[in-house]
Amino acid sequence: QKEVEQDPGPLSVPEGAIVSLNCTYSNSAFQYFMWYRQYSRKGPELLMYTYSSGNKEDGRFTAQVDKSSKYISLFIRDSQPSDSATYLCAMSLNPGNTPLVFGKGTRLSVIA
Amino acid sequence: DSGVTQTPKHLITATGQRVTLRCSPRSGDLSVYWYQQSLDQGLQFLIQYYNGEERAKGNILERFSAQQFPDLHSELNLSSLELGDSALYFCASSVVPGSYEQYFGPGTRLTVT
Predict the structure, then answer these.
(1) In Å, how far from its chain's centre is CA A70?
(2) At residue B82, what are phi and psi to the nearest 5 degrees?
(3) How far apart are the CA of B57 and the nearest CA of chain A, in angstroms?
């Protein structure tokens, strides 16, 4: 079993839809949870960061962490064609000492 | 544009050969990370340097090595290349050692034939 599991998709939604992207993980010691966005032919860029459990909101994006279920989610409201990208979850025990572990990424297409 | 530069963008080489990938971090960033991205394995951490010193090591093969120079640029050396080494290689940088906020370069696409 991989440490971090992520459905690769592809996921195709109409413009304006609410998108839910998810990851599960096996290591209960993970404390730091991130979502990176990767456009085609580009490197990943940090989108959201959450420490431990709870929700965090940034504009149209909401990150949720449920440590009891070892499950993290990224919600995108009012999705736009410009949101079309691959979304990678990442997590770490302590980024200062241990490397980030990435999911394989979910490819999202938002159709106008 | 993240401010991280990588050269070359594309590299095509034969099995058994050796290549060097180069990375210049963002201005002011002391930490450099190397990752390999393939369809099979996703984004895998290879190695991290901080201010010239190796800081952390991931699943980096013995055929691969890296270093960070005094001007903070870094090179990843891949030798005795195999078909399975074909992948995207990303460099990332951060201000502090071991940060969740890493700035990725555009990557080098390596094709081994």
Answers:
(1) 13
(2) -120, 165
(3) 8
Q: What's the token pair of residue A84?
A: 């079309």
Least CB-CB distance to B105: which of A32, A34, A43?
A: A43
Q: Which residue of B has its CA nearest to A7?
A: B42
Let me know: does A108 contact A21? Beta carbons within 8 Å: yes
* Shortest alpha-carbon distance between residue B100 and chain A (Å): 6
- Closest partner CB to B104 (pick from A43, A94, A98): A43
One-letter amino acid at B11 equals: L
User: How far from each other are the two terminal CA atoms of chain B, in whole angstroms?
Assistant: 31
| Residue A5: pLDDT band with limits 50, 70, 90 | very high
Q: What does the pLDDT look like over B82-100, one tens digit per residue?
A: 999 999 999 999 988 777 8
Beta pairing partners, A50: A33
